[in-house]
Amino acid sequence: MISAVFLGGCSHTDEGTLSQEANHFFNQGNYGAALDRYEQLIAHHPEVADRVLFEMGVTLAYPRNAHKDYHKALECFEKVVADHPESTYRHDSQMMILHIHNVVLKDRRIEAQQKELEISRQALAHRTDEVANLRDKVETLEAKVFALRTEPADRVLIEKKARRLTLLTKGEVIKTYKIALGGNPVGPKERQGDNKTPEGIYTIDSRNGNSGYHLALHISYPNEDDKRRAQELGAPTGGDIMIHGIKNGFGPLGSAHAEKDWTEGCIAVTNQEMEEIYRFVPNGTVVEIRP
Question: At the topology level of CATH, where does 1-126 sit?
Fold first, then answer.
C-alpha cells in the first residue's frame, strides 16, 4: 500500500534540485540519502514542509527500506496533521497513520490470536463433535439468512458513543456495524469544519455510487436544530455528511480503520460493509444519530 509520492515543479531552483535528488536517491533505493535531502529541504524551505514531511514519512515506512522506522514515520505524518491543518497532504497523512498502526499492531495481534486459537482448540477438544457441528450449522444459517434478506431497512440507528451503526426493519435488527466518526466526535455538530458528527433525526436523501470513499449515502444534515445552532454562533453549518466506506486506495485497511475516528464528520465503515448498507438502505430511510 505504501508508495512514494513525489511532486516537482518547484519555483525555487535549490528546492527543485533537492527534491530531484531526493527522488533520485529514493528510486535508487538509497533511502538514507533521500532522507538527508528532505532534512535540508525542511531547513531551507519551510514553506513546503507539509509535502516534505509526508514524503519523509512515506520513505521511513516504505516496505523495501531495510532501515524503515515506523515510529519516525508516524511522527512525520502526525506533524503534518497537527501543524498543517490546511495541507492537501493532511487527509492522506491521517490514512497513513491508520495504516502504520495496523502494520505495527499486526504481529502482536497474530501472536495474541495464535494463543487464543490454541486455547480454543484445547477447549474444543473436550467438546463433542455434535456440539461443534451444531455451532458451525448456526453460523452458516445466520450467514444464509442475512444473504437472503430482500426487505430494505426502514431505519438506521447510529450510536456515537458505542461507535455502532444498526440497520432495522419494523423494529427488528438486521445487522450492526462498527464505525469511525469525525475526528472531534463528542457533542453535536455546531459549524462547518469542526470535525464533529451530527446528532439528531435525518434521512438518506441521495447516494453516490462513484464516491471517492467506496460508495456513499448522503445524510440530510443540516436539520432545523443544526441551522439554529450554527446561526447562534454566526457560522456556516457545513454539509456533505455521509455514511461511506474507506477512501479509495486504502481499502485493505479493513476493520482497522475503525480503531481511530478519522473522518471530517461522516460515518465510516469497511468497503464490504458499505456495499451491504448501500444495498439495504434506500433513499428516504430515517437516520437517527444519538450521542
Answer: 1.25.40
